[in-house]
From TrEMBL, chains A, B:
NCBIfam families: PRK07502.1 (NF005694). It comes from the Bacteria. It holds the Pfam family PDH_N. Belongs to the prephenate/arogenate dehydrogenase family. Pathway: Amino-acid biosynthesis; L-tyrosine biosynthesis; (4-hydroxyphenyl)pyruvate from prephenate (NAD(+) route): step 1/1. It is an enzyme of class 1 (oxidoreductase). Keywords: Amino-acid biosynthesis, Aromatic amino acid biosynthesis, NAD, Oxidoreductase, Tyrosine biosynthesis. Its EC number is 1.3.1.12. It catalyses: prephenate + NAD(+) = 3-(4-hydroxyphenyl)pyruvate + CO2 + NADH. Signal peptide: none annotated. This is prephenate dehydrogenase. It comes from Erythrobacter crassostreae. Residues 3-291 form the Prephenate/arogenate dehydrogenase domain.
Amino acid sequence: MIRNVAIIGLGLLGGSIGLAIEEHAPDITTTGFDRNPKTRATAAKRSLVGTVCDTASEAVANADLVILCVPVGAMEEAAAGMREALPKAAIISDVGSSKQSVGEALAKALPDHTIIPAHPVAGTEQSGPDAGFASLFTNRWCILTPSETASTEAVQSVSDFWTKLGANVEVMDAEHHDLVLAVTSHIPHLIAFTIVGTASDLEEVTRSEVIKYSAGGFRDFTRIAASDPVMWRDVFLSNKSAVLEMLGRFSEDLTALQRAIRSGDGDALHELFSRTRAIRRQVIEEGQDDDRPDFGREDH
Amino acid sequence: MIRNVAIIGLGLLGGSIGLAIEEHAPDITTTGFDRNPKTRATAAKRSLVGTVCDTASEAVANADLVILCVPVGAMEEAAAGMREALPKAAIISDVGSSKQSVGEALAKALPDHTIIPAHPVAGTEQSGPDAGFASLFTNRWCILTPSETASTEAVQSVSDFWTKLGANVEVMDAEHHDLVLAVTSHIPHLIAFTIVGTASDLEEVTRSEVIKYSAGGFRDFTRIAASDPVMWRDVFLSNKSAVLEMLGRFSEDLTALQRAIRSGDGDALHELFSRTRAIRRQVIEEGQDDDRPDFGREDH
Ligand SMILES: NC(=O)c1ccc[n+]([C@@H]2O[C@H](COP(=O)([O-])OP(=O)(O)OC[C@H]3O[C@@H](n4cnc5c(N)ncnc54)[C@H](OP(=O)(O)O)[C@@H]3O)[C@@H](O)[C@H]2O)c1
Ligand SMILES: NC(=O)c1ccc[n+]([C@@H]2O[C@H](COP(=O)([O-])OP(=O)(O)OC[C@H]3O[C@@H](n4cnc5c(N)ncnc54)[C@H](OP(=O)(O)O)[C@@H]3O)[C@@H](O)[C@H]2O)c1
């Protein structure tokens, strides 16, 4: 049974976990730490956790579950920094967007602890201590990637925890996670960053034109491309091989489409554009997006 | 002064124009035609226009402005089909997403008429007679691409018309329009169609996984990739050279990022990801998107 949760990193993910616990599992006490004093002050003001501590050691001292909510590249350092203060029985988990490298980093920093890496597939383009909200995980999936030798009870505890916060839980191996998320998250972000960069560097088309006429589709990409630079730098560096693999597939398919456009092959274009519609329907049916046209911008 | 508007093609764009006229300029009478009898029936039921006609000739007989709202590839045929019935003084316009080829097609089909091509940069992923709504053009830009010899009064009339419907109007040459829209609309759609296609064709990752974990970013792309296949086939075929030009730039930039990931160049990644954030802010400041995180999905 998890009674005391320590959250390290009080940004979007850490803050949302704190608020979700307060809403869905108020019997659990929460402590939190962030290296940034301003973030700690905001966290205290917004009551993201029950107690905001001034050191990681203080925050984890009584925890049965510690969740690292820092950028992927900061996991090892954050874990090492609390080693001495960690209760022996505490389970260590995280929310990092890539899982093989994080699993390895945590195992290295905390070789004697039970580590159950996790990734709630939920987020927004905002970050920082003002960005979190209690319903972030509702009806979203949380993927656990325990090593083969991880204790079944620890996996169950972390799974129960996320279920309480409103998420659906899935267990898979870290390598597969990294491949799946390369497709459903990392490549979409990479493409969005790229096209927004391309558009802002053109000579023939001014930046003000790009912005004025962005309602033609481009504006959607600007949202994703506004995501946190540090977080995403770390994701691409830590999930390099799966990202490069999937990027290769994408580039091949893009080249094929380019050829179809060049040769005026309308049937090939129509065939692809018809197939992709079905995926949207399934995304909506599975409750992973709603069916309001244009994301409901019109209703606003 | 425009008193009678005929709308040919009663889908998303045609229907929205009809409804916007009713809301913003109720003194203008509207007639409409669509080649599809079911669409005509729905248009009549939803009162998309004042009178739904059974032929294009009937619809245009008394018009001072005729707006073609059919796929870009159908413009020439639709224009030619109404030639005999067109009043001599009627201005012909359209809403096609590419403008050089449409301008040429309309000039060819109606050599003796005043043609003022237009493109309201507004839309959703939905199409058909049920998709339209009166506020589609509010605060969006409408681009006019008259030829150099077009009458100034006719340009002014069409400009005033779109201003009445709530749009901001800009005039530019068709070639520049096609380059700008390749960046802000056509390439974003092409990329979205491609990545959704890539994701659904993988062997290592199942389609059900792609859908389950789509909240990581992928779901945004599925919305755009659910757009009408015929419309988009026609856009790419009719704006081939600008699309291929911009696709070349995008591919170069993507290759550079790929290299940065491969070589672990975190600074290059961080630098790009920081720059793209500013564009999002400008899109919001310019009123082309709102600032709710995650498109306000959470508020729903
Ligand atoms: N954003 C998403 O959509 C999303 C979704 C799923 C998973 N994730 C994952 O969740 C994690 C956190 O992301 P986020 O969006 O919550 O980022 P965030 O809002 O930027 O929050 C991260 C916080 O961690 C702090 N921090 C950095 N290093 C630290 C350390 N060594 N010790 C203590 N605190 C430290 C940061 O402080 P500074 O301000 O000083 O850097 C910042 O306040 C990342 O691993 C990310 O991959 C994100
Ligand atoms: N959707 C957008 O976001 C957007 C934005 C700006 C501009 N545009 C442009 O607007 C135009 C219309 O797009 P839309 O989204 O409104 O498409 P839509 O909802 O599919 O409507 C087009 C309608 O035109 C009909 N049609 C086709 N050929 C015709 C003909 N020869 N005569 C009469 N009716 C004909 C179609 O009937 P069938 O069902 O029989 O084909 C359909 O009902 C396109 O040129 C597009 O490029 C679209």
